[in-house]
């Protein structure tokens, strides 16, 4: 088949204008030579011994194409199981795991019986997965080694290990919640679709209010910015309104919630954002 | 650095093409990284250089096209070109911009040796 136009000619290669072309003629593996050999097609206009002829090969494919294909598969899988998945991203130490532990408790009291699970991403250790398991929720730890972000393959593999099925899935409702806690990194995770329903960026007040401008891709990719550790506002130089203005500049549609995961501020609004009413769960409605 | 992950993905795509199109060495690799793709072309070039030895990409020229970013300006209601997410509108200076293009990250084509 011709590499350029896909025509059925088994042995001919159409000439290409880019930096020369092969002489043509038969290339059928093991086949007999036939046809005409043309040596005038390369840039020198002639055959130059020792210089290999070249040809162009069109690719025109997304570099993240394979990841995006797996992400779409994850997304379809989540939908089929009534799972709403959120991809939590932030710098290391912003409070993602503490927020998740507090969230699990809050969600349990507000929506008892709602299945919950967490995929934990870190370079090394199971420390975070163990903290989640201590709350009673299922957690799978993904260790990326030197990797700096989770990808769709890792999430697909981890999800396969959960038993996170809704009893009866109704379209449009939250039947089960999956949190994906990404590797602490304000740069790379922004680019990787994991199949989530939404990306959430957590920024703590100790990190400075200029981060949305310094790391625009992360804030542009996120549906929600959680400003965490607001219990420390009195002790740091963090202008909440300025931070929100910066975030809205790179992403006019970004939602914003103010939280203190340790003190509980903002928890109700956060649970509402995650699970908009009405929600259906095994056993009835709230 | 995610450029290394991307370079590994590029190498995988090129190796798949090599098996499909029956070539062993690449003369030129032509990539496209839009201005708003979140990729630093120099870092990508460096990462590809680090991965290339012993592969079909060894010695290949790397060409990276960088199409401009585009955005819709909420101030003057025009489509404008921007080179970063922080640029104000080049027409009216507003910072109320919504990115509309320039995020592509693709392998465009290869020039390969027929040997």
How would you characterize the overall build of this protein?
The complex is a heterodimer of chains A (286) and B (115). Chain A has 286 residues and is α/β, with parallel strands linked by helices. Chain A has helices at residues 65-80, 96-110, 127-133, 152-159, 211-214, 216-221, 240-250, 267-274, and strands spanning 54-62, 83-89, 116-122, 138-143, 176-181, 198-204, 224-228, 255-258, 280-281, 284-285. Chain A has a seven-stranded parallel beta sheet, sandwiched between helices. A two-stranded antiparallel ribbon of chain A has the order 9-10. In chain A, strand 9 (280-281) and strand 10 form a beta hairpin. The relative contact order of chain A is 0.15. Chain B contains two helices and six strands; from the N terminus they run αβαβββββ. Chain B has helices at 2-21, 41-51; strands at residues 25-33, 61-65, 69-73, 79-82, 97-101, 105-113. In chain B, the strands form two sheets. Chain B has a three-stranded mixed beta sheet, covered by helices on one side. A three-stranded antiparallel beta sheet of chain B has the order 4-3-5, with no helix packed on it. Chain B is elongated and about 55 Å long. The model of chain B has no long low-confidence stretch (mean pLDDT 94). Chain A binds chain B through residues 3, 18-20, 22, 27, 52-67, 147-149, 151, 187-188, 190-191, 213, 216-217, 220, 249-250, 252, and chain B through 1-2, 5-6, 9-10, 12-13, 17, 21-23, 25, 27-28, 31, 38, 74, 84-86, 95-96, 98-99, 104-115.
């Amino acid at each position: 088949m011709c590499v350029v136009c896909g025509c059925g000619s088994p042995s001919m290669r159409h000439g290409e204008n880019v930096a020369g072309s092969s002489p043509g003629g038969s290339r059928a593996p093991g086949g007999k030579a036939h046809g005409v050999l043309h040596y005038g097609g390369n840039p020198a206009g002639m055959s130059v011994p020792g210089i290999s002829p070249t040809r162009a090969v069109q690719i025109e494919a997304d570099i993240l194409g394979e990841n995006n294909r797996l992400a779409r598969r994850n997304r379809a899988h989540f939908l089929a199981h009534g799972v709403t998945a959120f991809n939590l991203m932030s710098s290391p130490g912003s409070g993602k795991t503490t927020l998740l532990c507090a969230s699990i408790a809050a969600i349990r009291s507000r929506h008892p019986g709602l299945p919950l699970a967490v995929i934990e991403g870190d370079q090394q250790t199971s420390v975070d997965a163990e903290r989640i398991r201590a709350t009673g929720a299922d957690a799978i730890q993904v260790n990326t080694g030197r990797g700096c972000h989770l990808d769709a393959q890792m999430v697909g593999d981890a999800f396969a290990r959960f038993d996170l099925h809704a009893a009866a899935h109704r379209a449009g409702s939250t039947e089960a919640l999956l949190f994906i806690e990404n590797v602490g990194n304000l740069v790379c995770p922004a680019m990787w679709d994991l199949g989530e329903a939404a990306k959430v960026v957590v920024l703590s007040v100790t990190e400075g209010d200029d981060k949305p401008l310094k790391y625009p891709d992360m804030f542009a990719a996120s549906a929600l910015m959680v400003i965490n550790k607001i219990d420390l506002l009195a002790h740091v130089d963090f202008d909440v309104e300025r931070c929100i203005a910066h975030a809205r500049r790179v992403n006019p549609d970004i939602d914003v919630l103010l939280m203190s995961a340790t003190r509980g501020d903002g928890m109700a609004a956060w649970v509402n954002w995650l699970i908009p009413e009405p929600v259906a769960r095994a056993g009835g409605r709230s | 650095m995610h450029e290394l992950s991307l370079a590994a993905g590029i190498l995988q795509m090129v190796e798949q093409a090599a098996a499909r199109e029956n070539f062993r060495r690449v003369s030129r690799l032509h990539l496209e990284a839009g201005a708003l793709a979140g990729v630093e072309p120099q870092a990508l070039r460096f990462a590809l250089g680090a991965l290339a030895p012993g592969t079909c990409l060894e010695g290949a020229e790397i060409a990276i096209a960088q199409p401009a970013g585009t955005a819709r300006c909420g101030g003057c209601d025009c489509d404008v070109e921007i080179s970063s997410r922080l640029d104000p509108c080049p027409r009216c200076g507003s910072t109320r911009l919504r990115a509309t293009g320039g995020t592509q990250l693709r392998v465009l084509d290869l020039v390969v040796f027929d040997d």
